[in-house]
Please model this.
Amino acid sequence: MLTLVVDTATSAVQAALVEIEDDELFLSAFRREIDSRGHVERLTPFIEECLADAGRTSADVGAVVAGVGPGPFTGLRVGMVTAAAFADGRGIPVYGVCSLDGIGGNTRGRALVATDARRKEIYWAVYENGARVGEPQVGKPAELGELDADYAIGEGASKYADELRIPAEAVAAYPDPVKLAELAAGRVRSGAPTEKLTPLYLRRPDAQAAKP
Amino acid sequence: MSEPLVMGIETSCDETGVGIVRGTELLADAIASSVEEQARFGGVVPEVASRAHLEAMVPTVQRALDDAGVTLEDLDGIAVTAGPGLAGALMVGVGAAKSYSLATGVPLYGVNHLSAHIAVDTLENGPIPEPAIGLLVSGGHSTIMMVEDLAGKVHQLGASIDDAAGEAFDKVARLLGLPFPGGPYIDKAAEEGDRGYVEFPRGLSAAKDMERHRYDFSFSGLKTAVARWIEMEKRAGKSIPVNHVAAAFQEAVCDVLTRKAILAAKEHGVETLLLGGGVAANSRLRAMATERAEDAGLTLRFPRPKLCTDNGAMVAALGSHLVAAGVAPSEMHFPANSSMDVTIVSLADAL
Ligand SMILES: [Zn+2]
Model:
């Protein structure tokens, strides 16, 4: 099943087409650009380009997988509404996956996955051999407490390497589209019902009134 | 082509609107509003609005399609507000519209919210005679627009240099202990009030201001004047006659809005005046504009109140006008532009 994967939970605007077969997954096209302010400009053109690269059309896509965060809200919403509207427009199912799992799912040992939550905070979760331990959290990197992780990975890890008390990978890692597809592959294969995508905001909206 | 069938998506503020029109016929006007949530904060919180847009987007599209009895494949165009408005809120609508367009192959039109407020009048009163003057008044804008050609030649003659008229209504409502949004409550209270009870200032109406700010408005001084008046009365131990203050305030706003809009029409030799935006639902504004337009020999047009406030139908109406006029669709990479210039009617690459 040709599956459209989108993730905008980090500063990487990402679209991919992943072929989900009975026992294997193939990446057939992929676009990624690091542009924390360019989600709405770039994402749909990326999907168009992926379709062109793969020699396919929108009508060939059978399912959509979207990273639902946690991530900075404005960009995250662009990816999610794009995924939901594409699925609705084609009458195909859409499935949500945790964006941090797209990084943590590829780790070995005990890893802290941290992405940039802005306002000097990170979104984070700990993974044990690729499986997440507990729910994703948001907080200041210096205030995470005893983590029992061997190293840290992700945009938030490289950015706040000085404040984390464990070694951080210097190269920023972003959610891997094939991993995101894999996380939903069971649902795609079994034709599970479409989902209402709910963002992992982890923060309340600021409650100060603004000008309409 | 027969009359174009167009879906319009509007998310510039706190209403998730999806409208569907065929030509100038309104087929669906689905709206989900976060106004009740916003009322708790006494104003629009952008993050609250954006969250609500994401929740409501797909269900509102489905509701509009059901109401209109059409499918996405039937559409000749998908129009979306590209700006001006709240950036994060706009992005939800723009993201959705682009993706619906890509998924279905239906051409995409990124349009200007202000021109959409003008275009919505076609749904009620038919094609707009051009040129026309538009008076757009809402919580976000107070603008006098010159509409030479609704398909692409629009410019601004004047605008508020501080608060929008709708903001003044909200602020004065708060001073009077009336709920948010203030417009409808002030309108209601004013029904029982004496418009001449207090003479509140008319901003930018003095001779020297009329030179520099001929078609501009200012409402922050008016709000301050109302606040000061209320404070003086309270200090003198008097109770505040809410209905009278509401009526006198409303009179000041409507007086300066209609006076300048009619002046603009006369001085530009334009015979048609259009009202749009949420404040155009105000009964006093409508009555005063009707009276003054008649005296000035102008044709006044305005749609019913529900079409004055932000909705998807207005975006669909403009989209339909653009498709009928043969304006090129927009490319997929256009941004959401929170401060989109009024002269940009649509983001077509070739105009
Ligand atoms: Zn408006």
